[in-house]
Design goal:
Blueprint: H1 3-25, H2 46-66, H3 76-105, H4 110-138, H5 150-213, H6 217-236, E1 241-243, H7 244-262, E2 266-272, E3 280-282, H8 286-298, E4 305-314, E5 317-325, H9 332-336, H10 340-353, E6 358-364, E7 367-375
Parallel strand pairs: 2-4
Antiparallel strand pairs: 1-3, 4-5, 5-7, 6-7
Helix pairs in contact: 1-6, 2-3, 3-4, 4-5, 5-6, 5-7, 5-10, 6-7, 8-10
Length: 381
């Protein structure tokens, strides 16, 4: 097949990969999923329930301190117990209602969702208060289900509920908004770092093909096929984190491209262990490491050299080690720029894992070694 036809095949595959990625990312709405974050927080989490219980108990203590003695029972502790039970019923019932209705409320405009949530809490307070009155009447503690203090009881409960629930909703919404903004900023930072690496990878691959077009057209044709397959794999990975096997496949495709350019000057030894399915890593982690080894090692050596690549699992962590030979004399450009790709990868690890990941390098006996340690489970932003 002629080179021009191979080139058309490359762009056809690229267009197909883009269409597939668009269908996965924007199946129905035409916009990326998750662009509009949920307005109301998740009230089903243990943290929220714990906070609600603590606030409810503090409110019970305050009410117990300000009410007249012998209001409910002869002792302070009995008063506190009865008030605590009632307030906890109201608080937990309201939390359960918002937990169940949250997915429906988040479909509404923000202001309407907030108003509906607030009214649901007040309605829950009224229903629980009414149930308490009927329960006391059924147990014989009241002679009628409509005692003299019935209206005052509901007015007092709804007033307190309106104040406390308003404050709590504002608190939870502010905290949820802060968490959403922090997560959004982290994702934006990660995507910016990703966008710095992907174009560089594309241009580097195109330069490889360009360098082979006149000197070795047959190799350029093979490179176009490898590049088409490689880009199809990259475009199909729309997640920030991918299985280790997928990342190794991408790295090997890249090395096949570099092998065509460098011919017999490049040798790569792979030593990969077995990884469980849960083992993932950021997209394009291995490729920049290998590119760094080629640019600052193999390319500077007239006879080329060997890159040793090891991956293994240890202590529930992924260990990556890439070793390449270094020339005895280095150019000024090489001394001043030891590898921007390593800095980019280090920043990406910080965005993904924080202090749980590390990237270190060392030079010893003419060899340059980069060691990466990642958690085996990824924190997918």
């Amino acid at each position: 097949m002629e080179l021009a036809a191979k080139t058309r095949l490359l762009f056809d595959r690229l267009r197909g990969g883009v269409r597939d990625a668009e269908q996965r990312l924007w199946p129905t709405t035409g916009a990326p999923p998750g662009e509009k974050a949920d307005f109301l927080p998740n009230f089903c989490t243990g943290e929220v329930v714990f906070n609600v219980v603590v606030v409810a108990e503090m409110l019970a203590i305050v009410i117990n301190l300000v009410i007249p003695r012998n209001f409910l029972s002869p002792t302070v502790l009995q008063d506190l117990l009865l008030i605590s039970i009632f307030i906890q019923w109201v608080a937990l019932a309201g939390t359960a209602v918002l937990c169940y209705t949250r997915k429906y409320l988040n479909r509404l405009p923000n202001l309407r969702a907030l108003g509906a949530a607030y009214l649901l809490l007040l309605l829950t307070t009224f229903v629980v208060s009414e149930c308490v009155v009927w329960l006391l009447w059924a147990l014989g503690r009241l002679s009628t289900a409509r005692p003299a203090w019935y209206a005052d009881f509901h007015i007092l409960n709804l007033t307190i509920s309106a104040i406390i629930n308003g404050l709590l909703l504002r608190l939870f919404l502010a905290k949820h908004e802060l968490q959403s903004r922090t997560l959004s900023e982290a994702r934006a930072k990660l995507q910016a770092l990703q966008s710095r690496i992907r174009p560089h990878f594309v241009f580097n691959s195109m330069n490889i093909i360009a360098s082979l077009t006149r000197s070795a057209p047959e190799k350029a044709e093979a490179a176009i096929e490898d590049m088409a397959d490689l880009f199809r794999m990259m475009l199909s990975q729309d997640e920030m984190l991918v299985p280790v096997k997928n990342e190794i496949d991408v790295a090997k495709k890249y090395l096949a491209l570099e092998g065509l350019r460098l011919d017999n000057r490049l040798t790569v030894n792979w030593d990969t262990g077995t990884f469980p399915r849960k083992a993932v890593m950021p997209v394009l982690t291995l490729q920049p490491l290998l590119e760094n080894a080629i640019r600052h090692g193999i390319e500077e050596l007239p006879a080329g050299g060997t890159i040793d690549t090891r991956l293994w699992e240890e202590n529930d962590q992924i260990h990556i080690q890439v070793t390449n030979p270094l020339p005895k004399t280095r150019s000024k450009q090489m001394k001043s720029n030891p590898g921007q790709s390593l800095d980019n990868i280090r920043q990406r690890f910080q965005s993904h894992y924080g202090e749980q990941a590390s990237l270190s390098s060392r030079e010893e006996n003419g060899l340059f070694t980069v060691t990466v340690i990642l958690p085996i489970r990824g924190d997918n932003l």
